[in-house]
């Protein structure tokens, strides 16, 4: 297995390099980059004779435009005075040391921006993860045992309707119904906590946080329930119909013993193997529309604003970090097959 892990790690390097190279080419050579945006802003604010100052140098004077010297200063400010290949190699060298640079738009370190917004995305992702796995596995088992019953039909209809409704549409509906839009004002509309959160006791802080998270978590989790529930049901149905289940029943074992001692450990394999990737992704991914609707300044909104503002350090830095996380989580998902199913081995892959 060690050889297999080393091979996978070796394959991560060209994959990560290729993703960053393609993205670098796209972002660096599209029109409307940071230099052009800054020039446009300075020209738009120059009617009153103001001067836009970067560092200690005045880069704009009234309506006289930018001469070559000031343009060169702008190019140097954003690092565009170097050839593209040199910029890319320097960027990758810094990224290997997890130095993602400074944002053009926020004028803060990219790492600080990500750390400041991770708690919001982690709150949405982690709670959604716990709800999805906590609800879907027992529900899927119950549906498999009662396959074709009224319970199975009703629950399938409900979860498929929830799956068909986009998360942002459900979020708007929840706001209208329970956020004081037109009916009941039961839950807050924005933020993770109330304005006076710092003055609350520990118990009240926890309750206030959970109170704020009800609507956004519901909107983000409902869409995932159908996929995981039906996957669980189909996996258990496939195992229930196998010969070893009939043999176990013939030996006089109860239905619970057959289900949880024999069927469960085989049927849960395709569900558990997706656990590592989904768990890690839940900490770092953000939903742009959910965060926008509920005024949550998380990773999804940061990524969207960075693309709009041509904030290349944020775009490329977060892409590098999340791509690396994604590759590692995929490796953990593959390794989890061996942990939950001893029949699987990577020995033939190692050779």
* Approximate strand percentage: under 5%
Q: Got a strand count? A: 2
Low-confidence stretches: 45-64
Q: How many structural domains can be distinguished in the coordinates?
A: 2
Instruction: Work out the helicity level.
Output: over 70%
Number of helices: 16
What do we call the CATH homologous superfamily of the largest domain?
A: MetI-like
User: Within the largest sheet, what's the order of strands?
Assistant: 1-2
Give me the CATH architecture of the largest domain, please: Orthogonal Bundle
- Average pLDDT metric: 78
What would CATH call the class of the largest domain?
Mainly Alpha
Overall geometry comes to globular
Protein name: Microcin C transport system permease protein
Subcellular location: Cell membrane
Membrane topology: Multi-pass membrane protein
Transmembrane segments: 9-30, 124-145, 157-189, 209-232, 267-294, 314-333
Task: Characterize the structure shown.
Belongs to the binding-protein-dependent transport system permease family. Residues 118-333 form the ABC transmembrane type-1 domain. It is found in: Cell membrane. InterPro entries: MetI-like, MetI-like_sf. The longest helix is centred in the middle third of the chain and has 39 residues, at 202-240. Helix 1 packs antiparallel against helix 15, helix 5 (110-145) packs across helix 8 and helix 14 (299-308) runs antiparallel to helix 15 (312-340). The protein has two domains: 37-90, no CATH class; 110-350, Orthogonal Bundle (MetI-like fold). The chain has 16 helices and two strands. Helix content is 71%, strand content 1%.
């Amino acid at each position: 297995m060690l050889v297999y892990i080393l091979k996978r790690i070796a394959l991560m390097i060209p994959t990560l390099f290729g993703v960053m190279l393609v993205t670098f080419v796209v972002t660096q050579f599209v029109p409307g980059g940071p230099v052009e945006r800054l020039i446009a802003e300075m020209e738009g604010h120059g009617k009153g004779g103001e001067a836009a100052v970067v560092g200690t140098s005045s880069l704009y004077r009234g309506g006289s435009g930018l001469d070559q010297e000031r343009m060169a200063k702008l190019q140097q400010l954003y690092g565009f005075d170097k050839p593209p290949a040199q910029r890319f190699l320097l960027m990758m060298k810094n990224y290997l040391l997890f130095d993602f640079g400074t944002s053009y738009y926020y004028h803060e370190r990219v790492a600080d921006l990500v750390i400041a917004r991770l708690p919001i995305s982690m709150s949405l992702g982690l709670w959604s993860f716990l709800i999805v796995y906590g609800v879907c596995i027992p529900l899927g088992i119950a549906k498999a045992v009662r396959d074709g019953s009224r319970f199975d039909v009703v629950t399938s209809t409900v979860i498929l309707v929830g799956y068909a409704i986009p998360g942002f549409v459900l979020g708007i509906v929840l706001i209208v119904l329970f956020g004081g839009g037109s009916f009941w004002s039961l839950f807050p509309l924005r933020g993770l906590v109330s304005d006076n959160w710092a003055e609350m006791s520990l118990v009240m802080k926890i309750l206030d946080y959970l109170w704020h998270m009800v609507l956004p978590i519901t909107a983000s989790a409902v869409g995932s329930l159908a996929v995981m529930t039906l996957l669980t049901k189909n996996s258990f149905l496939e195992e229930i119909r196998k010969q070893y289940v009939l043999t176990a029943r013939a030996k006089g074992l109860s239905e619970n013993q057959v289900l949880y001692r024999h069927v469960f450990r085989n049927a849960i394999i395709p569900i558990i193997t997706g656990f590592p990737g989904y768990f890690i992704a839940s900490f770092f991914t953000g939903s742009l529309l959910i965060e926008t609707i509920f005024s949550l300044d998380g990773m999804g909104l940061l990524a969207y604003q960075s693309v709009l503002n041509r904030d290349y350090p944020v775009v490329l830095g977060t892409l590098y970090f999340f791509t690396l996380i994604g590759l590692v989580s995929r490796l953990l998902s593959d390794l989890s097959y061996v942990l939950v199913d001893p029949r699987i081995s990577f020995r033939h892959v190692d050779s």
